Amino acid sequence: MPFRFTEGEILLINKPYSWTSFDVVNNFRMFLKSKLGIKKIKIGHAGTLDPLATGLLILCTGKFTKKIEEFKEFDKEYTGVFTLGATTPTFDMESPLDSRFDVDLITNQQILDTAESFTGSQMQVPPKFSAVKIRGRRAYDYARQDEEVQLSAKQIEISAFEITRIEMPEIHFRIACSKGTYIRALARDFGAALKNGAYLSALCRTRIGPYHLRDAWELDTLKTSLLPG
Q1: Which one of the listed residues 50, 75, 92, 104 is annotated catalytic?
Q2: Which residues fall within 8 angstroms of residue 15, CB to CB, at 6 or more apart?
Q3: What CATH code is assigned to 8-73+211-226?
Q4: What is the pTM of this model?
């Protein structure tokens, strides 16, 4: 069945590493214009992924762009890696290390118990390098100009926090959580709960509501499949 992009489509894309979510939208929009001759089209994404994250990104075109806000309400699932023993200003690898800690006394059982302690409903302070709006501006705008602002804690729900492998200082995990959960902030809080430090060193979104990464297109594969001949 051919795609009907102008009328409306829902596309599952595996976001490439180092791309922003808007990079994916703009790249596909330009492809539709230049290769398929679709000059006017509505297209957007349902839920931002950080540049250093990979995984499921939902693109909506045409009339289905109206579903974007609905999709943003879905719960999410991620796999990834926390690196213990250090912190960064952005809580991930987009900024250099700013502190180091000794991890020799941290046991596997402490790590497992800490993960369990984070399940359920809780309050989370978003990262200062985030898209949260404060007085009409994004938090990252203040952070980039070294302006201090107070970020309010928001209620989130972590329904599953599984430690899948421990290879110190790397802690591999699977997390299922509500909308608005920042995994970078969870790395910060996880390290603090161990009286240590941690940052997010890898992240992949594997599910958004009923939509799964296993059903997603690689962007180049999708574009190739749409070319004539």
Answers
A1: 50
A2: 21, 24, 49, 53, 54, 55, 56, 57, 205
A3: 3.30.2350.10
A4: 0.92
